Amino acid sequence: MPPATNDRFEPDRYGQDVLAGDWRAAGRRTIPEVPATRDLVVELAADGYCGAVVAVEKQTVTLEDRNGRTRMFPLGHGFLVDGEPVRLVAPKAAAPQGRVRTASGSFAVEPGRPAKVALPSRIFVEGRHDAELVEKIWGADLRVEGVVVEYLEGVDDLAAILDEFEPGPGRRVGVLVDHLVQGSKEQRIADAVMRGRHRDHVLVVGHPFIDVWQGVKPARVGRDAWPVIPRGTSWKHGVCAAFGWPHEEQADIARAWQRILGQVRGYGDLEPALLGRVEELIDFVTAPAG
Predict the structure, then answer these.
(1) Which is nearest to 222 in space by CA: 244, 250, 246?
(2) How far is residue 163 CA from its own chain's centroid?
(3) Which domains does the chain carry?
(4) 144 burial level (CB within 10 Å; 0-12, 13-18, 19+)
């Protein structure tokens, strides 16, 4: 016979299985994720350093204290907001609404449309930083037009480079020169090229800035103006020193540029003196051959 049963409910004297579920998380406090949006005031839990968010990259956040000094930290745990621990994360990009514009302000082409085969024409810029900035703002437009941007590492040999390239009808060259101001070495080189045998198929324009870094509005790095660097001091090293950024090694300068470039979102973050010259070059090299 089956054993007699007791119809009266008896509670389990031993309770639930202690190994069931996430027993390690019992009583653990959940630390919220907070996007590191610009101007968010954050405190470092370890030492009490307090600053506002001025820059965010893939893995780092830069904070600026009330004295204008900046420090860079890895995103993640170890921060306080309003005295409460948080996990700082990179802000998510907003989903595009309606017809999408490129960083240069033009309308983007339909998704999936292939880029054109590269045109024979070219745009030359002085250095790698110039090329990276042009790519970030105008890259989508240039790929649609089939225009390739190359960097020269300076314009001292521009005439010889053009002789080798052999500009001609349908093979135009636009050149963007840094610090193209009256009386400068760069102006003399540009004038000689524009008087030379390639003048009908070459356009040399420039901006007045000592370096293309200055083509970025200083507000993008939390400053009112770019510092004035004394003659005899490397301009980029001087800028980093004035901003309190590392500058002892070339790798420091490269990181400083990536920090600046990372804050450039679109054409509105660049100075008009640079914007206009690049647009002029694009129009020149994409004009119908004639």
Answers:
(1) 244
(2) 34
(3) 33-89 (2.30.30), 107-213+272-289 (3.40.50), 217-263 (no CATH)
(4) middle
Torsion-angle region of 136 (φ positive above 0: left; ψ -120 to 50: alpha; else: beta):
alpha
Rounded Cα distance between 113 and 95, Å, is 20
| Dihedral angle of Cα 134, 135, 138, 142, to the nearest 10 degrees | 120
271 has pLDDT over 90? yes
Report the alpha-carbon distance of residue 209 to residue 207 in Å, rounded. 6
Q: Which of helix, strand or coil describes residue 103? A: coil
Number of H helices, E strands in the chain: 6, 11
For residue range 181-237, list pLDDT tens digits in order: 898 899 999 999 999 999 999 999 999 999 999 999 999 999 999 999 998 899 999
User: pTM for the full model?
Assistant: 0.61
DSSP state letters, 113-128:
PPPPPPPS-EEEESSH
Task: With CA atoms as reference, report the closest residue to 258 among 42, 55, 53.
Answer: 55
Question: 109: pLDDT confidence band, cut at 50, 70 and 90?
Answer: very low
The strand pairing partners of 173, in sequence order, are 122, 202
pLDDT at 116 over 60: no
Residues 6+ apart with CB under 8 A from 104: 137, 138, 140, 141, 266, 267
Amino acid letter, residue 257? W
- Report pLDDT for 117: 47
Residue of 123, 58, 48, 51 whose CA lies nearest to 90: 58
What residues have CB less than 8 Å from 71, skipping those under 6 apart? 49, 51, 62, 63, 65
